[in-house]
Amino acid sequence: MTSEQTEQPEEESRSFMHYAALKTAIVNNEEQRVKELLANQSMQALEKGYLLDLAGLNNNSTIVALLEAVPVTP
After folding, report:
1. Own/partner pairs for 67-71, CB < 8 Å, 24+ apart?
2. Are residues 72 and 42 in contact, defined by beta-carbon separation less than 8 angstroms?
3. How far apart are alpha carbons 17 and 13 in whole angstroms?
4. Which residue has the higher pLDDT, 28 or 5?
5. 30-72 pLDDT, tens per residue?
6. Inter-axis angle of helices 31-38 and 61-68, to 10 degrees?
7. For the stretch 18-33, what's the b/e string if a residue is b when 16 or more beta carbons lie within 10 angstroms of its beta carbon?
8. Neighbour count for residue 16 (Cβ, 10 Å)
9. Where are the alpha helices (DSSP H) in 1-74?
10. Which of 4, 21, 22, 61 has the fewest CB atoms within 10 Å around its CB?
11. Is 63 buried (19+), middle (13-18) or exposed (0-12) by CB count in 10 A?
12. Are 70 and 41 in contact (CB under 8 A)?
């Protein structure tokens, strides 16, 4: 197994933890934390749509605006 192969699961794990932290911050209406987690990030359209729906449930227009500004990865 190459070091590249062992790094990929670790990277995926960090990505999953980052996404989980983002969902938690959205649910808890933690605007500053959401802003920090979204800094210099892009995401897939499906992820972005889900997070926008989640933010919409809390009617937090600031978090919705932060999410809308995130670029979608092709």
Report:
1. 67/26, 67/34, 67/38, 69/38, 70/38, 70/41, 70/42, 70/43, 71/42
2. yes
3. 6
4. 28
5. 999 999 999 999 999 999 999 999 999 999 999 999 999 999 9
6. 0
7. eeeebbebbeeebeeb
8. 10
9. 3-27, 31-38, 45-57, 61-68
10. 4
11. buried
12. yes
Q: CA dist 51 to 1, 8, 35, Å?
A: 36, 24, 13
Q: Please state, in angstroms and rounded to a whole number, the distance separating the CA atoms of residues 58 and 63.
A: 9
Q: Where are the domains of the chain?
A: 3-68
What residues have CB less than 8 Å from 20, skipping those under 6 apart? none
Residues, the chain, total? 74
Query: Is pLDDT larger for residue 16 or for residue 67?
Result: 67
Confidence of residue 24 (pLDDT cuts 50, 70, 90): very high
